[in-house]
Design a protein that fits this description.
Protein name (chain A): ABC transporter ATP-binding protein
Structural class of chain B: alpha+beta
Number of helices of chain A: 8
CATH superfamily of chain A: P-loop containing nucleotide triphosphate hydrolases
Structural class of chain A: alpha/beta
Pfam family, one (chain A): ABC_tran
Strand order of the largest sheet of chain A: 6-7-8-3-9-10
Largest sheet of chain B: 6 strands, mixed, barrel
Oligomer: heterodimer
Keywords (chain A): ATP-binding, Nucleotide-binding, Transport
Radius of gyration of chain A: 19 Å
Family (chain B): Belongs to the ABC-4 integral membrane protein family. LolC/E subfamily.
GO molecular function, one term (chain A): ATP binding
CATH architecture of chain A: 3-Layer(aba) Sandwich
Order of helices and strands of chain A: EEEHEEHEHHHEHEHEEH
Strand order of the largest sheet of chain B: 2-3-8-5-7-6
Shape of chain B: elongated
Number of domains of chain A: 1
Number of strands of chain B: 12
Chain lengths: ~240, ~400
Amino acid sequence: MLVELSGISKRYKMGDVWVDALKDVSLSLAKGEFLAVKGPSGSGKSTLLNILSALDQCDSGTVHVGGINIGRLGEHQRSKFRNRHIGIVFQSFNLIPVLSALENVMYPLTLRGVKEAKPRALQALRDVGLDQQANQRPTQLSGGQMQRVAIARAIVTQPDIVLADEPTANLDSKTSEHIMTLIQKLNKEQGVTFVISTHDDYVTGLASRVITILDGELVKDSQTNISPLDRHNRVDITELEVKV
Amino acid sequence: MILGWKVALLNILRNGRRSLITLAAVVFGCTSLIVFGGFVQSMYDGMRESMIRSQLGHIQIYAAGYNQYGKAEPEKYQIPSAKLEQISNVIEKQTQALVVAPRLNFNGLLSDGKQSIAIMGIGVDAEKEVLLSSAIHIVQGEDLFPEDAAAAHLGEGLFNALNAEVGDHLTLLASTQDGAINAVDIQIAGVVTTGVKALDDRLLRVNLPLAQELLYTTDVTRLVVLLEETEMTDMAAEDLGKAFRDQNLNLELKSWWDLAGYYHQVVGLFNGVFGFITVIVLVIVALSISNTMLMAVMERTREIGTIRAMGGTPTQVVGLILLESVFLGIIGSLLGLLAGILAAKGITYAEWMMPRPPGSTQDYPIRVFVVSEILMKTFTLGFLISLISSIYPAVKASRIPVVNALRFT
């Protein structure tokens, strides 16, 4: 398995109140999967993605990505881990405004000190169909084009997994379709593993697997088609039958 | 890493107004240091040359022991006239001396018949002193000439105290080297000022033969050497000392540096003031830069979060922000140097007058030297202070949790 999450829990303190963002979540993900994480706002989708991308740490449980236990990594190592193994696509694109599209895509490679950053970045832009806009600044691009640049930036390092937190939330429906078609294409043709959080049914319809998170709990997994809660319930019923 | 440099450089242009404020702080600091440092340096230079060219010369040569015992028994520590030619030959051979002038110092009383005033007298070679004492200004009357045997120059304060007129005859009394009282008549040829009030209140300059006649001697107290450049002093003094020893001349010498106690006190005082002002300026500049960099970092918190999310390490974030400061420091310091040089030239050109300092008798024009050493120090300080004052904002930025940074709006 590419990703193994086991018994992940995370609590936040909001004011004087503690909030359980994730409760005992376990999940496995194979290479090449296209996983959609579904759930309402505040359900814990973003927290799950943050922990998976080593941006945040869980309070309990373990996270293995590509065989690496990321919970044991220090701050510096986690940065290196993200650079080599994780690609992130943000809802608001988060491009660096002073750099061109090409330079934005080159940036993760230069952080690593890769010398052939430019040809690789150009190829990534070609993959997302934006090589003609390589020298344009983010302000000269449309929302859809900016998100394509962000996707190119996420895949340019050839990461194990690309995490996208509601990547179409700031886009109109037509542009969202284009972006999702591109993600699906990259997933199918290049075997890029995607984990996308969303509450858009169109996005979940394209994913090869959908999990649903509610109040911090993984309540449904389309792969097994049985929610972990259902499984608990069934055991309880069996036990009841035995008792009867 | 070229991309990192580009990001840092372009970030400076991103918020032009804020960058201008930061640059203005660096430019202000650099200009202040260059102008004040150049002004202080011009004061040092003016005071040094004034002392050299009115009293001290570059090197003074005495009979051995004069400086230790000469005040109690001056007659025993004079340079004999018989040796003057030999000593002068050695000096001319060893140094590029412009002038070697004998002086005979004495103390006495100057009387106009109604009152007597204690004086500090110097017998001089009038022709040589024209060049040697070029910083002594004649306020009234004319130069001393060797053929006017009884002619004398009075310090301005002494002249005023006697309520005399140029051309008046006065009587000069002093002890001869044998201890007898002797008197000669003098005529006031001119009134002079050295720029130092304490000296002007007691100074009397007469031709050397008249002083020798008064003291009943043919010896002189010292030989004063004026070199082409003050910077030659140390080497000339070293060469002369060696030559005197080689020729068994029982002499000792002192450079202006050894004799200018007042100069050293003033330099020490002003160096302290300059140091204090430098610290104040640097603190103001540092606070200004630190503040603007903190604002810049705060505004770009989300961008910093993105860089961290892409795999930028905390060290790389610190490096990026410090690189911006390095650029700001270099640009600001270079502009500061330019502004400082222009300001220094402008102030000097304007010839504004400064009021006379304590103990001085003359106002003086403000001159601001452009000193390469000060320029280099200022550039280095401007650059370093930009860098140092950005360390806190940079470290602070690198320590923001990535998730919080990405949520920042």
